[in-house]
Design a protein that fits this description.
The complex is a heterodimer of chains A (199) and B (372).
Chain A lengths: L1 E10 L17 H14 L11 E6 L4 H12 L5 H4 L6 H10 L5 E6 L3 H14 L5 E10 L2 E10 L10 H5 L9 H15 L5
Chain B lengths: L5 E9 L2 E2 H9 L6 E2 H4 L10 E2 L11 H10 L11 E5 L13 H9 L11 E5 L4 H14 L5 E8 L3 H10 L22 E8 L1 H7 L5 E10 L12 H14 L6 E5 L6 H15 L7 E3 L2 H4 L6 H15 L1 E2 L15 E2 L4 E2 L6 E8 L3 E9 L2
Parallel strand pairs in B: 5-6, 5-7, 10-11, 10-15, 11-13
Antiparallel strand pairs in B: 1-2, 1-8, 1-9, 3-4, 7-8, 9-16, 12-14, 15-16
Helix pairs in contact in B: 5-11, 8-9
The chains are: A alpha/beta (199), B alpha/beta (372).
Chain lengths: 199, 372
């Protein structure tokens, strides 16, 4: 059911590169990291049902850089509306939707490291109940001076049982990070190294 | 695993108050919109600009004060027995130590109200102004999957002066006040506040001694995937979200007797929403009363979805559809049965639909069924 995995890890001072072409490129660097992971996931494995595919984002701190620009503008009583409109954590999901032209649910869950497990439970239920048969689980975060992101392309054909991967998401992540994306990244890295995920 | 998910408690805190006083004010057609100059006297906003801001709050870092109000008003003692908390917010405060990080703010400032919940049982949904609606859908998924028995859902957002400044620059804020679906509408009136709901399965609610008010009969979500701020002018993706909600509600969809529309009051949104509802319902739309409550309490950003679901829940509970505050002359291009004033429904209401849209082109719809 995990069709493809894309990973990104890079210095926060470096703009993440990717080969997707969202119409709007004024996104936060964290969103850029997400797009970089996403582009690697779809490079060899396109979405099957883009019209209804969901993108569920996961993050801890969201779009810190854009928020900082808006708060600096507020201190000077200057509008920074372009950054403001792109400062919400939802942009991790909505930019992904724009980049892949997919039209199912698009939302982002913010929380502690274990939020990745909650996200998996929501994704599983969405797939099991037909809310979306195809889901991109897209984590993106800034952790210290690093941007990290992971994208998992998941698909459950009609009538197919949804795999119970939740225990995998319960495994401890890197101890020095509260980020759910660090946990997702570690899980996806291990999976990418041990399984043929490009089915 | 699949099961049912019910709403057993629902309340909202807005510029018109909370609880039954709020509901009576909304049904009476009152508007809690106030001049922005009154809410933010030192910022020089235009005299005619109205907002749904709460008075007597500090100009910056308003969430701490809002959360204190929530403690005293809309969060009941039963919340301490929830085994999961799903928050909803767009950005929260844009100043202070938790600027733009509502999830961290929620854990830091209200964690003591939920001592039973570790950090892993708290999550915040961000889907811009659909966050509140999507949070209820996420909570429903957690209940119906068996992950949680009883979930608290808290939607909140603040309107600092700095945030209003951004919306004025974006052109979404009306120069005067929100008039959803009116021929002379000119934008929305942003506001602040929150809502709290307790949802759960039958067993979980029984354990807490809570009686269900409404069943979450179905929900649908979609994304325009077109633009960060502007909606797709065709309305086809919000129509898909509504159609999916109706399809997942099954036969209940045929009994929908009230629609709480997103109805932001921007010229484009209201026209697209009317098109989307028409595509989803067809001719039957002419039989269903529609209203937006944003003219009464404002557009509560990331909280607006759950606040409006609270109104829809109360509407089916009492069999009364709230009127569309601010409406003077219905736009002739809006082919909806917009209610100029509240209306009791003979025989009661058995189901309602609530719709919200948000930046990024997110569209959400949820169907509620009355539990007799």
């Amino acid at each position: 059911m995990i069709r493809s995995i894309g990973l990104y890890e890079g210095d926060a001072a470096t703009t993440p590169s990717h080969d997707l072409a969202p119409k709007d490129k004024r996104y936060d660097p964290v969103v850029g990291a997400g797009l970089a992971a996403l582009s690697r996931a779809v490079r060899t494995c396109a979405l099957i049902e883009p019209r209804t595919a969901a993108i569920i984002g996961v993050t801890d701190r969201g779009c810190l850089a854009h928020v900082a620009k808006v708060t600096a503008g507020i201190a000077e009583q200057k509008p920074r509306q372009a950054f403001f409109a792109r400062a919400g954590a939802q942009t991790i999901a909505t930019y992904g939707a724009m980049a892949l032209d997919c039209h199912g649910p698009a939302l982002t869950l913010s929380g502690s490291a274990a939020t990745v497990r909650t996200a998996w439970q929501v994704v599983s239920q969405f797939m099991a109940t037909g809310v979306a048969r195809e889901v991109v689980l897209l984590g993106a975060d800034r952790v210290g001076d690093w941007l990290i992101a992971a994208a998992l392309l998941l698909h459950a054909p009609a009538g197919a049982a949804v795999d119970a991967l939740a225990p995998g998401f319960s495994e401890p992540g890197p101890d020095d990070s509260p980020s759910p994306v660090a946990r997702l990244h570690a899980f996806a890295s291990a999976l990418a190294n041990t399984a043929d995920t490009h089915r | 695993m699949t099961g049912e998910c019910y709403i057993a408690f629902a309340d909202a805190s807005t510029t018109l108050g909370h609880g039954e006083a709020l509901w009576r004010a909304v049904l009476a057609g009152q508007s809690g919109l106030i001049p922005a100059q009154r809410a933010f006297p030192s910022h020089g906003f235009p005299a005619q600009t109205h907002v749904g801001a709460l008075e007597a709050l500090p100009e910056h870092q308003r969430l701490p004060s809002l959360f204190e109000r929530f403690r005293e008003t809309i969060i009941p003692a039963a919340a301490r027995s929830c085994d999961f908390l799903v928050g909803a917010s767009s950005l929260g405060d844009l100043t202070g130590p938790f600027a733009g990080q509502p999830e961290r703010f929620l854990r830091a400032r209200l964690g003591d109200l939920f001592p039973q919940l570790t950090a892993e049982r708290i999550v915040v949904v961000s889907s811009a102004c659909s966050s509140g609606t999507d949070a209820l859908a996420v909570a429903s998924a957690l209940v119906t999957s068996g992950t949680a028995q009883v979930v608290g859902v808290l939607a909140f957002d603040s309107l600092e002066a700095g945030k209003l400044l951004q919306h004025i620059a974006l052109g979404t804020q009306s120069p005067d006040r929100a008039r959803p679906f009116d021929a002379n509408r000119s934008g929305t009136s942003f506001g602040e506040g929150g809502a709290f709901a307790i949802v759960g399965g039958g067993d979980g609610l029984h354990r807490l001694g809570l009686a269900p008010i409404a069943r979450i009969a179905g929900f649908g979500m979609s994304c325009d995937a077109l633009d960060i701020t502007a909606p797709d002018p065709t309305g086809r993706w919000p129509a898909m979200a509504i159609q999916r909600a109706l399809a997942s509600a099954g036969q209940v969809a045929g009994r929908i007797g009230y629609i709480n529309a997103h109805g932001s009051g921007t010229p484009l949104n209201d026209r697209i929403e009317a098109m989307a509802l028409r595509e989803a319902f067809g001719a039957r739309l002419d039989e269903i009363p529609v209203s937006s409550t944003k003219g009464a309490v404002g557009h509560l950003l990331g909280a607006t979805g759950l606040v409006e679901i609270v109104f829809a829940t109360w509407a089916i509970r009492d069999g009364i559809c709230p009127g569309n505050a601010g409406l003077e002359n219905l736009d002739p291009e809006i082919a909806l049965q917009v209610l100029p004033a509240s209306k009791a429904v003979g025989g009661g209401l058995s189901a309602a639909l609530s719709v919200t849209f948000g930046f990024g082109g997110v569209n959400s719809a949820i169907v509620l069924e009355k539990i007799s």
